[in-house]
User: Fold this.
Amino acid sequence: EKIFHSRDHSDVVDMNNIHQAEAITDKHTAQLFLFKYGFIRASDSDEVQSLAEPVSDTDDIFPLNLQEAGALSRSSRTELQNQQPEFISALREFQRVSSLPVTGVFDDATKAAMNQPRCGVPDQEEQPELTESNSISIQNHTEVMQNHNEVTPNSADVMQNHNPAVR
Amino acid sequence: RKRHLAALLKNRRRRDVGDWTGHMSFSKTLLKWRVIGEGYSSQLSIDEQKYIFRLGFRMWSEVSPLEFQEDLHSPLEDIDIRLGFGTGRHLGCSQRFDGAGHEFAHAWFLGDIHFDDDEHFTVPNTGSGISLLKVAVHEIGHVLGLPHIYRAGSIMQPSYLPQDSGFEIDWMDRKSIQSLYGVCQGRFSAVFDWIRKELTPYGEVTVRFNTYFMRDGWYWLYENRNNRTRYGDPVAVPVGWNGLPDSGVDAYVHVWNRKTDAVYFFKGVQYWRYDSENDRVFANDSLGRSYPRLISDDFPGVIGPLDTAYYDRRDAHVYFFKGSQVFRFDVRTNRLAKSSPQRITAVFPAVVPGDHPVRNVDASYFSYTHNSVFLLKGERYWRVVSARDRRRKPSLPLNALLPHRDVDQQWFDICDVHSSSLR
Assistant:
């Protein structure tokens, strides 16, 4: 669909020159992805820690993102790639939650999954110490989300009858 | 700018973080939203964008106690959820967008939603591109306090999956939002199964029924097999029940025996007979007298307004409930039973002493799904002992009431939506 802004229709918005996001093609861009969406925690490694200092209002909460990667100095970028253990465990976690074969290797399937359009909210958050609420005991929020029989223990029989996995 | 910042800090949106259960949630159920003035997309018309956001909020309202209202007038800092489109560095947000591909939107708990206008967002059911509705429902879920959920079928999956024709919020996602905001509850003015006869292509007559819950001027069709209401409900009563009063009804009765098949709706001191085949009220009765008619004219001894009523095919009586009394009306003799009126506690004794609605029953409902009569009052219901129960346990008195249970544990997710989002 052509989109016009000015009244004389002279400024046909060229849909082709819309800014494209940088594709995730290699381990470095994969590492930035894993950092941006919380798979590599800021606390995982000191180097990453310095990159994710608490930011003021004007800076990015995620100082690392796909456009600004180029702005990193060469030394910190290579150091980032040397975070091998963190990178592999983060990669495995991403593969696990994405229902991919958990190989720990930046393979094609993982690359494709990383390049999917997605929500910008991080997948893994710095979970504060979870306190037990009055009616539900929550060990890990994700666990509660995936297994609802516990949410209302007193009606587990009802949930049992209506749990789609059972249906 | 200083004054504005001070105002912001002073009037910080009252967002009490309930007891910290791992995720924040709003502490109120009516939430105001607005598309930020400079935040409209350049790709869709304003009407399309507003329609989609209104629908997105409505979808969450249909499965939770939350209601949403677009607010175009209050100060911006009083708006609970602010939405806007932008590209790259946008709307003063601290997280810039990355262009077409990858990140299409982000949201902040209890706060704002930003959509990347470099993405090719589309309206529902139109070709390729990213469904703005599906993204909006996902991001609204974040604002309400839901994290990403890695479960096939969940709307809260982080990656976008092209929208199958009609995505809806499934059972597990409903329970997720309800774990933050509770289940939907409330009293009903009438609950009934509506029966209709249909001819099959082969000329056979089949009988169909649907279950309806009515609350004041709104109603839901309840799908027993799916344990949920029909998508898109509630609907205003006049929209679906041609000729019934806008404010809904007090009772529904279907007198159905070998000689009679008549549906009646009662409201106040009047009643209508309903034409199920043509799906509208009858204009006149068989003697040409126009509806609505006075209840007492045609049901001698019964005077509206009623709490509720139902027809019992076993004894061919209509049971009219009013206050603490019940009136048994014999449709064959068109007269009240001699023993009427009686106390509800006498006609429907409690199996467990003290566990009884006693008076002001909201709705009496014979369910074809459960082959039982239910009495509903507030958020509770009592099931009337059935013939099968008494065969198993002969000691149970006739029409006794079994111990109460919660309505929302038998009929799920019957939720109000804000009147502004009624279609």
Remarks:
- Chain A touches chain B through 54 residues (CB under 8 Å).
- DSSP finds seven helices and one strand in chain A.
